[in-house]
Amino acid sequence: MKTYRIPVIVFMMLSFSLPLFSQWIVQHSGLPASLNPTLLLSAVDSNVCWGVQGDLNTPILNQKCVLTTDGGLNWSLKDIQGISGLYVASVAGLNATTAWIAVYDSTRITSGGIFKTTDGGLTWIKQSSAFPGAGGHPMKIYFFDANNGLCTGQPRSGYWEIYTTSDGGTNWTRVLSANIPPLASGDYGGYGAGAGNSFWFNSASCSVYRTTDKGLTWSVARNIFPPTAFFLEVAFKNTLNGLAISYYGDEKNKVSSSTDGGASWTRLSVPPSVPSAARITYVPGTSGSYFVTSFKNTGYPQTAMSGSMYTNDDGLTWIPFDSLSHGSTSFFNNTIGWSAGCGDTIFKWQGKYPLGISDVKQSSIKVTLSQNYPNPFAALTVIQYQIPNSSKVSLKVFNIQGKEVATLVNEEKPAGSYQVNLSSGSLSTGIYYYRLQVGESVQTKKLCIL
Questions:
Q1: What was the pLDDT predicted at 275?
Q2: What is the DSSP secondary-structure string of 392-439?
Q3: Residue 250, Cβ neighbours under 10 Å: how many?
C-alpha cells in the first residue's frame, strides 16, 4: 500500500492544481529583480491597477511606480520624485490618473508624508499638511471616495497619528487624541482595510482600532488573540463582517471573525495551516471570500512558507491554492485581481471561474435590512441594507406613534450593499422604528436611543 500511496497523491495534487495555476497570467512590470515581492498594489477597475515598490530591508534610491490602464497587457514604469531613500508603506488608486502614496523615513529624521499624483504618476506632489516635521511614520493611506480619506501612522507624542481629509488631500487634519483610545503598552502598527464609511487598523498588541465616520472618531477591540500572539492583519467585506488573521508569534495562522463591525471577535474552529499567512484581502463580489498570501521567511523570525490560500465561507474552511511567492494582492472583483511576485513579475487572475471562489449572482441576492449597530446608541448608529437590482429606495425613521421623524434615503440606487449613519441629533431617548422600502419589499426594524 505504501508503495502506491505517494504517486496517487501526487497525481491528484497535479490534477487539481494545474487548472487553478493556469488561471494566473504572468505579467511584467519592468522593475528590477528582487528576492521577495516588493510591489504594493491597488486595483481600481478591470483595466486600471497601480503598483509601487514597498518595504525592503534597505531604502530604494530611485523609487518607482507602475501603472496599467489596459488590464495589465502593458505596465508603464515611472520615477517618483522627492522620496529617494525613503520607504513606501501603502498606495491608494482612484482612477487612471489619480493616486496617493504614504511614505516614511525609517531614520525618523523626516516624517516622509503623503504624495499625490493627478497625471498618471508622471509627477507626485507632497501634501504638506500631513505628518509635518520629524518623527512621524505614515502607514496606511485609504480613500472612501475622491474627496474623503484618511492615513494612519505610528504613534507620535503619545497617541496614534491619524489624519483625515475631505478635499482629496489638499488639507489634512490630525485626529485629536481625545477621539482615539489610549495606546496599549509598547503598541505600534497601522495597516488596515476599509468598507463603507468604516476603516480598521491593526496593532502589535493584537488590538483592532475602528472608525465608522471616516476617521473622525475611533474605538478599539483588544485581545483579538491571546498574549502569545503578535501582530495581525484584518480585512472586511462590509461594515459589519470581517476576518483577522495572526501572522506572527505562537498564534501564527489563527483566524478570528467579527459580525458586529469589529467590536467583538470569535475564534474560528478551522484555521488555515499552509501556506503561512502574511496578508489577507477580501474579494469584492463574493458572499464571503478572502485571499491570504505569503512570501517565504522574509520578515519572520520563524519559518514561513510562501503561497496562497482562500476561503469561500468567511473563514470557516480554507483551501491551499499555490506555493508561489506572493506579496500584496488586490482584487477588483471575483474574476479580476493582481498579486505581486518577485522582481518584475505580477500575477493577474483572469479566468472564466473566480479563483475557486464563489461568485455572488445578483439573482441570489435579496433585499436585506440589517439591525443597526450599535443598538441601543447615544450619538450615532449605522444602518446597513442590500438591494439586488437598481431600484427606488426609501429608508425612513418613525417614532413609536408612527410619525416620520427622519428620511435617510429617498432615491434611485444601483444594486449593491449600502450603509447609512443615523445621528440621534434632536431625537429624544426612546424606541423608534426604521423602515426600508424597495419596490414592493418592505422591511422594518426597531432601534433604541439612550
A1: 66
A2: EEEEEEEETTS-EEEEEEEEEE-SEEEEEEEE-TTPPSEEEEEEEEET
A3: 13
Secondary structure element (H or E) that encloses residue 250, with its range: none
Query: Rounded to an integer, what distance in angstroms lies between the CA atom of residue 254 and that of residue 238?
Result: 21
Contacts of 325 (CB under 8 A, 6+ apart): 36, 37, 295, 296, 306, 307, 341, 342
Q: At residue 368, does pLDDT exceed 90? A: no
Q: What is the CATH number of domain 362-449?
A: 2.60.40.1930
Sorted by sequence, the CB contacts under 8 Å of residue 16 that are 6+ apart come out as none
- Spans of all domains in the chain: 2-350, 362-449
At 12 the pLDDT is: 30
The answer, as to whether pTM is greater than 0.90, is no
pLDDT 10s digits, 239-280:
999 999 887 666 777 889 999 999 999 988 766 666 677 789
Strands of 232-236's sheet in order across: 232-236, 242-246, 254-258, 266-267
Superfamily of segment(s) 2-350: YVTN repeat-like/Quinoprotein amine dehydrogenase (2.130.10.10)
Of residues 329 and 384, more confidently modeled: 329
Structure confidence at residue 61 (pLDDT): 62
3 state DSSP class of 197: coil
